[in-house]
Amino acid sequence: MVKVRQDAWSHEDDLLLAETVLRHIREGSTQLNAFEEVGDQLNRTAAACGFRWNAEVRKNYEKAVDLAKRQRKQRKKAQQQQRKPQPRRTVQPEVNLPMTVEETAMPVENSTMQVQTNEVSTSAPSIDSIIHQLNQLKTSNQVNEQINSELEALKHENEEVRNENEQLKAKVEEMSQQYASLQEDYQTFINIMDRARKMMVFDEDEVTTPSFKMEKNGNLQQIAK
């Protein structure tokens, strides 16, 4: 299937990318496998997922990445401990002593049961091995709880950032409306000033200046137009 390029990353997409990468780190896998898995789920290329992780998402999950790496080391160490062969107990050779009359009369079933009990005791794991495995399980559970706690904190922080973005969008919308109203008032004011200027020019054209002439006796007489 051809993957379609999508430029918009949602909050859920980033969260899925972070959880998948952290899981692959804990399990000892590579980030490339995580990018391919997320790409299949979001219909994106692995390169796009890798670029998104390195450019935007990783900086918000630095502590979680460190915890995942430590958990990977602990898990690898536990696997190596399990692969080591357990030391075998040496069975002391039995000394064939002369049997008494009572031991000779012991039923064969009791002797068979004793042999089976000895076999079970030699094949059972040691107490130190059981304690070590329990400690590893306890440490792993504590790390998982800490990671889950940090993920919840990050989710809460992302939710707060989203609410702040919504508030900022509302403020920008309000300011845009105010700017549009001011621009409309300014245009109305310009139109009024333009009409007033035209009326003043029209009145000046209608006003005529009077003309006078001087008579022989030196008096001025207005000339009617």
From TrEMBL:
Q: Which residues form a coiled coil?
A: 137-185
Q: Which species does the entry assign this protein to?
A: Alkalibacillus haloalkaliphilus
What InterPro entries would the database entry show?
Answer: RsfA-like (IPR014243), SANT/Myb (IPR001005)
Q: Name one Pfam family in it.
A: Myb_DNA-bind_6
Name recorded for this polypeptide:
Prespore-specific transcriptional regulator RsfA
Q: Which residues form the Myb-like domain?
A: 1-57
Region Disordered: start and end of each range?
66-92
Please tell me whether the keyword Coiled coil is annotated for this protein.
yes
The root-end lineage is: Bacteria, Bacillati, Bacillota, Bacilli, Bacillales
Record has Coiled coil as a keyword: yes
